[in-house]
Design goal:
Elements (H helix, E strand, L loop, with lengths): L23 H12 L3 H7 L22 H11 L3 H5 L21 H11 L11 H7 L14 E2 L4 E2 L52 H15 L6 H17 L12 H8 L11 H13 L4 H12 L16 E2 L4 E2 L8 E2 L5 E5 L2 E5 L1 H7 L14 E2 L1 H16 L9 H14 L6 H13 L37 E3 L5 E3 L5
């Protein structure tokens, strides 16, 4: 049975200074090495564990967020200000690299679900650059816990994510005692051999020779260091959508352009969906395909530069009546089952309730063309006396105007579009009843007309979807339902 040990907080004498850009777990490991204690003991001495709490392991998502109460205890024990402490957690990237955080009150469960849903951060493990660890004495950077870090531009090497000895993920909170210098992970295959004793900074990472991938990493590092600069969030959101498209539609993606042999070998040896979040070399693979996959070498450099800019690529079709954002990176068309793979700078993005949707040029032309009303001589598949009266009045107004100015009258065009929507919507649905309500509002200027029916007037307190005081649309004797596959049937209605 685990017993609670009540121990008052004391101000620690040996507290290392946080390295610039260091993660919280790395700073705790440095605190443990400085005081020559275990990681769990360092967490208790620093105030991360509540006094009197059981001596258990740190939480799985430790370092994602620090509560204000915990930050005050850490400040009392180490002198580290709460603001500096929060800068070492993944919540530091919220509203920038990461999307909007969940609403308060924030709990470990809500933060964990938020990170898992967006698939951008690595809260339980980290990537690393062995030469950087060797220079800093085992300090792990916070940006290594993001999928956007796949290479080190200073040492020109790819980051590693697994131990070369045991194959386990690096810098995990559980299981095992954990360390920032030695792996110390215990896998099921080596349970009899004990914890892994491989020194992490002695591992040899693959070299980077592809200048384009180094340029992509420099751009990503600039966005990580300045998460709120104009256009940065749009670039990362578009790139993440492109990476997900490549992962899901692996077989439809264009072939990998010319790059380093290590990247090509890792892609061919993966054999399946590319889980780029686990392996930095696979992250480099999908970024290479998203940025330059399928485009010719002559236009690759110009397209790639425009995709990473704040303004994005320019619209190639200036004849669009409704402007749409140009796609930055490659991906599959999100319109139904369209198999078209959209190349960088050639598609368009359409905003919807579920987020931005990538469309190929064919489907983008449909949503970028302004709607025009149907001819007044053509009726929809549902007609009622109210819609017929409005159609007759609009016809009179249209005949009184110059035909050349038909499209220039926004009021007349707007009423015709409402009429078209009403006549092409099921009248028994809520949307159909609301559109019929809108048609009745358009009839108010025609109340002096001798053919106007007073029953069409709106009632006080009438809800748009209830049609208070109106004859039932099912039983209306003058309603006509035009069957698109047959003749008109008076007084009928679709089931």
């Amino acid at each position: 049975m685990i017993t609670a040990v009540s121990e008052p907080l004391r101000r620690l004498a040996l507290v290392p200074e946080p390295h610039p850009g260091e993660s919280l777990l790395s700073w705790v490991d440095a605190l443990a090495r400085t005081n020559r204690v275990s990681r769990m003991r360092a967490l208790r001495l620093a105030g991360f564990v509540r006094p009197g709490a059981p001596d258990n392991r740190p939480p799985v998502h430790f370092g994602s967020r620090v509560a204000d109460e915990t930050a005050e205890r850490v400040y009392a024990a180490t002198g580290l200000p709460p603001q500096r402490l929060h800068q070492m957690t993944l919540m530091h990237y919220a509203r920038g690299i990461l999307p909007e955080p969940p609403p308060p009150p924030l709990t470990p469960q809500s933060v964990s679900s938020w990170l898992a849903r967006h698939r951008i951060a690595l809260p339980t493990r980290s990537r690393d650059c062995p030469p950087c660890l060797r220079e800093t004495g085992g300090r792990w950077l916070l940006k290594w816990r993001l999928i956007w870090s796949f290479a080190c531009t200073r040492h020109r090497v790819y980051l590693i994510s697994t131990c070369r000895g045991c194959g386990e993920s690096l810098h995990r909170t559980v299981p095992g005692p954990g360390d920032g210098v030695v792996c110390r992970q215990t896998s099921h295959d080596r349970c009899r051999l004990g914890p892994c004793s491989r020194v992490i900074h002695r591992m040899r990472p693959p070299r980077v020779a592809d200048e384009h991938l180094l340029a992509c990493q420099r751009r990503l590092d600039a966005l990580i260091e300045n998460p709120h600069r104009p256009g940065g969030h749009d670039v990362l959101r578009s790139l993440h959508q492109a990476l997900e498209d490549i992962r899901i539609h692996y077989d439809d993606a264009p072939p990998l352009p010319h790059t380093d042999p290590a990247v090509r070998r890792r892609r061919h040896n993966h054999r399946g969906a590319q889980w780029y979040r686990d392996v930095p070399l696979l992250t480099a693979t999908v970024i290479k395909i998203a940025a330059t996959g399928g485009i010719t070498p002559d236009t690759a450099r110009q397209t790639d530069t425009a995709s990473w800019s704040a303004a994005g690529p320019r619209q190639p079709d200036a004849a669009m009546s409704i402007p749409l954002a140009v796609n930055r990176f490659g991906g599959r068309c999100h319109e139904g089952a369209c198999p078209t793979w959209v190349l960088p700078g050639q598609g368009n993005l359409v905003q919807s309730l579920a987020g931005s949707r990538l469309l190929c040029p064919t489907h983008a032309a449909r949503v970028s063309t302004r709607a025009r009303p149907r001819p007044l001589t053509a009726t929809g598949w549902y007609n009622s006396p109210a819609t017929g009266f409005l159609r007759a009045r609009l016809t009179d107004e249209l005949e009184a105007t110059d035909p050349a100015d038909e499209a220039r009258d926004p009021h007349l065009e707007g009423r015709r579009l409402i009429l078209d929507a009403c006549e092409h919507t099921n009248p028994t649905s809520k949307v159909g009843r609301a559109l019929h309500y809108a048609v009745r509002t358009l009839l108010l200027p025609y109340t002096p007309h001798p053919d106007f029916d007073p029953r069409w007037l709106l009632r006080q307190g009438e809800h748009p979807t209830e049609a208070l005081g109106q004859p039932s649309l099912h039983l209306h004797p003058d309603a006509v339902l035009t069957n698109p596959y047959g003749a008109a049937r008076p007084g009928s209605h679709p089931s």
